[in-house]
Amino acid sequence: MRDFTRDHSALALNTATLGHNLDGAGAGWSPERVIDACAERGYGGIVFWRREIGKRAVELGNRVRASGMSVVGLCRTPYLVGSEVPADLAGDLAASIEMAASLGAPVLTIVTGGTEPGTKGVIETQSRLAEHVATAAPLAAAAGVSLALEPLNPMFGGNRTCLFTVADALRVCDLVGAPNVGIAVDVYHVWWDRTLPEALRAARGRVLGYHLCDWLENTRHMLLDRGMMGDGVADLRAIRRAVEDDGGYRGLCEVEVFSAENWWKRDPVEVLDTIVARFRQLC
């Protein structure tokens, strides 16, 4: 397991931590201002959301690299299964892959969407998900992009996900069988899973992303009340040890804190400085 106490060059910001995943949230900083502020503080990378990129993917990707950082990934594909799949799924999915490639982002995150209408349980939905991912994987590979399936906390079952554990995500990876399809591991979604080390050993070499935050003991909103690292009950060191030692992950650690009533209301300067301090001390 890597030692970050004196070096935070493996730290990346997911811009959702500043509220950039929702209209009207956060302080409204431009992508350029976020890039410059992260670079000034020695961050190693940044992860954007599609909604803030627009038609400026090449320009913003170049700016990130010129600052000495890397574009770690892009959030996210449209839902691929469930009741909220876009009418033009193929077109929207292709557009998300194209945006990742234009940014120079090596990883595009997949949040799957919920249970397919007319089905029960998740097995049939997972099989349909695998079909969609298998169709997208060659297009992504041709663009130099890997696809990361992200399991979500079981409380999101039904409407946002059909993958609840790393083992679920690996099952779909195995059904797809493409070398550019793997998983993303998010503390918020896996902190409770005692089988995580075992599952990550099975996932070794297929972990494409690691997302940092914390689980607050008294979470007030299941989507928008994540904790900053150290404010909750997740065993951050144990989870990263499993991700790195069992899963073989050596990439950047991406801080992704959805916090509508706390961190999104603070000065982004405070947020970015707090992340650096907590990353070195606690993660």
Largest sheet: 8 strands, parallel, barrel
| Mean pLDDT across all amino acids | 97
Backbone CA Rg:
17 Å
Helix count, DSSP H or I runs of 4 or more residues? 10
Determine the fraction of residues in helical runs and give it as a percent range.
25-40%
SSE pattern, N- to C-terminal: EHEHHEHEHEHEHHEHEH
Supply the helix-strand structural class: alpha/beta
Describe the structure.
The protein is an alpha/beta fold and 283 residues long. The chain is built from 10 helices and 8 strands. It has an 8-stranded parallel beta barrel with strand order 1-2-3-4-5-6-7-8, surrounded by 7 helices. Strand 5 (146-149), helix 6 and strand 6 (181-186) form a beta-alpha-beta unit. Helix 3 (57-66) packs parallel to helix 4 (89-103), helix 5 (123-142) crosses helix 6 (166-176) and helix 8 (196-202) packs parallel to helix 9 (236-246). The protein is globular. The chain starts with 10 loop residues before the first strand and ends with a helix. The relative contact order is 0.15.
